[in-house]
Amino acid sequence: MHQQRATPNDRTTRQFVLPEGALALGAGLGTLRVPRAADVPALVAGTNDPEVRRWLPVPRPYTEAMALRWCTEEAERRRREGEGLHLAVTDEDDGLIGTVCLKHTNWRTAQTEVGYWLVPGARGRGLATRACRVLSQWALSATPIERVVLVAATGNTASQRVATQSGFTYEGTARSGGILFTGRTDLRVYSLLRADVPESAPGETTDNQ
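-> structure tokens emitted (209 positions)
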């Protein structure tokens, strides 16, 4: 059964709180955990990857100072203030291979948005789908969130596949809904609702040791 949740109007719940440890991606795989200072080199390399920069409006260049601030201050500030939850996607050796997040959270409407990216060597193995599914299902089964949104540029077919393979439903296209470094872009909009999540699939937890 789903665990008991507070209502969206309970002010004490207006931030995401991970269970002790992290969210497990599955047997023999890594976890979704809070970023650390040790993640900085991998975070810098991944964020400066051309394919990541093609679809995400990240700063250019993305520096070590930016990455260190993100890992040690900014990610936690956004969680504490209720904006979202920003996590490292790790491999079986606990090394960062990407990130996944909940963002643009509106606790009044019980809605949030999921986003993600992976380093080149981690792509094509279903890890983005698994990370997206685990975090989204956890949010819907263990927090007051009722709806998770995923948006992808119309040209980003890989991200669109992640959406459908994660169980999201295509809702339509937001014309000129996003901004890339090349200019504005149409966005395909997907959603996952609490009613879409199987009772047995809220996401596993681990002590990450």
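The helical segments are 40-47, 50-55, 64-80, 127-142, 157-165.
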